[in-house]
Specification:
The complex is a heterodimer of chains A (292) and B (328). Chain A is mostly helical and 292 residues long. Helix content of chain A is 71%, strand content 3%. In chain A, strand 3 and strand 4 form a beta hairpin. In chain A, helix 1 packs across helix 9, helix 3 packs antiparallel against helix 8 and helix 9 packs across helix 10. Chain B is globular, with a radius of gyration of 20 Å. The chains are: A mainly alpha (292), B mainly alpha (328). The interface between A and B is large, with 42 and 39 residues. Chain B: It is a multi-pass membrane protein.
């Protein structure tokens, strides 16, 4: 069977790959959006923290024999705690200066993390054993079991985070503090602690994405920095204000990237940037963004 | 009465500005002398590298320091210029100055395209947009047939500069780099102190007020962006000739970050800061050349320390302490 002259199997295969990429775009841009909402910070270290998540998972497996499912819980916690220490130790001193300094500081942190990991484990990638070998028959195609699970994990986490922010009391605090932190503080909410926990949570999402990514891609020091710049483009396209926007844009752009790989492979690495250009021309605040 | 006092005040201010300009030029002359001395005392290629990156940092500072636009993708102009200039010299046999001019022109065009979109957003958004554009150019450079992919564009020949200087000689290559470096400094210096530069500063300080005074601020910002890109392209082409190489590193986000770091260390929005920053960062890298793997970590640590502890940079702090002493 062929669709537009392309074998259906190839098309489905690339679409599935696109969805897997989209799952990571969504998790990462979701974390960025949550951090940006409260801290007004573009967390450049997000890619490095994603990479850190993958390395912690790898270390847990290699040194302690803790497998994928254990790492899925432990590694994001480790990354979150390190993130909270970073917030406490450095980021909080930048709350009253221009936003750009936060970007510069986290850029520096990204360099440090990438350099340290490369120093310890080398630049070349290391494989992480697939915890769920085998594939499932979806009726129209066969899909590797693990990739299906990766997409499912991302979808479930994104949905849970969205519900937590829109429907719980803590989420209400978070949304209120994003609007006007001083006012919420005046009502007796401990804003510095909320900021610390929020940063830890956003960074933990990056760590989680890193663990999920470990069996799909090679675990390497540069895995995060290459991805995070694409995620920045995703964020510009989706619009900074919206939680749902970052998730939808993440999955959508992953799919579009997959489609491009089928129809015009040479453009597959740049298609997201081209879409960003179009968005900047016709809708500068992004698809779901409010004008800021 | 009030008008006369304000007039005399502005006259006094003008005297101070004129004095500051003379001090800046005098210090720059001292820097040029120091560079010439250094080229005799140490590896001249390190000095040339410092000058190439100082040009690049000066170009970025025009945007970052004097207009208030933070670009995190300036490697696309530097690297684009390195590839363009290098290719024209190598494949077309163009003379050096023509290669540099072509590099500046191509970088200016790139800057026009990027700038039109980047100046529509503000602050950190501009940083993200420029970063994304640079990454797109990196991917294009990886795929394009003439860049040599991972190997880069190698063995770019050194020819005559203006038909006078034979850059195959190490000393004349140094002189060529120095001439371009002085030219770039004077262009930035003249621009910053021109009425156009004053408008840029007004936009940096308060864009809304500049708009209400009738300035089309986006046009000014775009002009600054294009000029900055063109100078970065020229710096890149010079670097390609000095090292006979244009590579993917020149276009990578690491290079974009490094030139931001040079400005940050030296002092954003000062005339001499970018030069000091370039000398410090390149100096550290050369000093540690045995342990290259640590450069990432060290750059990162410098970023963190400067952002937390002295955001005005070396030159900015020096100006600050001088001003305090004069105030007392």
């Amino acid at each position: 069977m062929e669709i537009f002259g392309i074998p259906a199997q190839a098309l489905y295969g690339q679409l599935a790959l696109g969805l897997v990429n989209g799952a990571f775009y969504a998790l990462l841009s979701l974390g960025l959006a949550i951090i940006f909402g409260l801290l007004n910070l573009i967390n450049f270290a997000h890619g490095a923290q994603y990479m850190l998540g993958a390395y912690v998972a790898w270390m847990l497996l290699s040194y302690l024999g803790i497998g994928f499912w254990g790492a899925l819980v432990v590694a994001p916690l480790v990354v979150a705690v390190l993130g909270m220490a970073l917030e406490r130790g450095l980021l909080r001193y930048l709350r009253d200066v221009d936003q750009i300094y936060g970007l510069l500081l986290t850029f520096g942190v990204a360099l440090i993390l990438e350099g340290l990991v490369a120093q310890s484990y080398g630049w070349s990638g290391m494989p992480y054993a697939n915890p769920l070998p085998g594939s499932v028959d979806l009726g129209f195609m066969r899909m590797p079991m693990y990739r299906l699970v990766a997409i499912a994990i991302s979808l479930v986490v994104c949905l849970a985070v969205w519900i937590a922010i829109e429907r719980t009391k803590l989420g209400a605090y978070l949304r209120a503090a994003s609007e006007d932190a001083d006012m919420v503080q005046a009502f007796g909410v401990n804003i510095p602690r909320l900021i610390m926990l929020t940063y830890g949570f956003g960074v933990g999402l990056a760590g989680l994405a890193g663990v999920v990514a470990a069996p799909v891609y090679q675990v390497s020091p540069a895995m995060g920095s290459n991805l995070i710049i694409v995620v920045f483009a995703v964020v510009v396209i989706g619009g900074m204000g919206s939680i749902a926007g970052s998730v939808i844009a993440g999955f959508g752009l992953g799919l579009i990237e997959g489609l491009t790989k089928v129809f015009y492979p040479a453009a597959s690495t740049t298609v997201i940037f081209f879409i960003m250009i179009l968005i900047l021309i016709f809708r500068p605040s992004g698809l779901f963004g409010s004008t800021r | 009465m009030t008008s006369s006092t304000s007039l005399s005040a502005s006259r006094g201010e003008r005297r101070i500005t004129r004095r500051r300009r003379l001090v800046e030029l005098g210090l720059f002359a001292a820097i040029v002398l120091a560079l010439m001395l250094a080229s005799q005392m140490m590896n001249p290629f390190v000095v040339m590298k410092i000058m190439c990156f100082a040009m690049f940092a000066l170009a970025l500072n025009l945007l970052m320091g004097f207009t208030g636009i933070v670009s995190f993708g300036h490697a696309m102009f530097f690297g684009g210029g390195a590839y363009m200039g290098g290719y024209a010299i190598k494949a077309f046999g163009w003379p050096l100055e023509a290669g540099i001019l072509l590099a500046a022109a191509v970088a200016a065009l790139l800057g026009l395209g990027t700038g039109v979109l980047a100046v529509r957003r503000h602050g950190i958004y501009t940083a993200m947009v420029t970063l994304a554009f640079a990454q797109m150019l990196l991917f294009l450079a990886i795929q394009a047939p003439f860049t040599g992919g991972e190997d880069g564009l190698q063995s770019i020949p050194r020819g005559y500069f203006l038909g006078l200087l034979d850059t195959r000689s190490e000393f004349q290559l140094f002189l060529t780099t120095l001439i371009l470096f002085v030219a770039v400094f004077l262009i930035v210096f003249r621009t910053v102190h021109s009425p156009f530069g004053q408008t840029l500063k007004a936009i940096r300080e308060n864009e809304a007020r500049a708009i209400s005074l009738g300035y089309h601020t986006n046009r000014y910002k775009l002009a600054a962006f294009v000029l900055s890109a063109a100078l970065s392209g020229a710096a890149g082409a010079m670097k390609a000739v000095v090292f006979e190489l244009a590579s993917l590193t020149d276009v990578s986000w690491h290079t974009s970050g490094e030139v931001v770091l040079m400005n940050l260390v030296g002092g954003i929005g000062t005339m001499l800061g970018p030069i000091a920053g370039a000398a410090i960062i390149i100096g550290i890298q050369e000093f540690l050349s045995g342990i290259e793997d640590w450069i990432l970590v060290i750059n990162g640590v410098i970023f963190v320390v400067v952002v937390i502890a002295f955001r005005r940079g070396v030159v900015g702090e020096a100006i600050g302490s001088l001003a305090r002493r004069e105030g007392r």
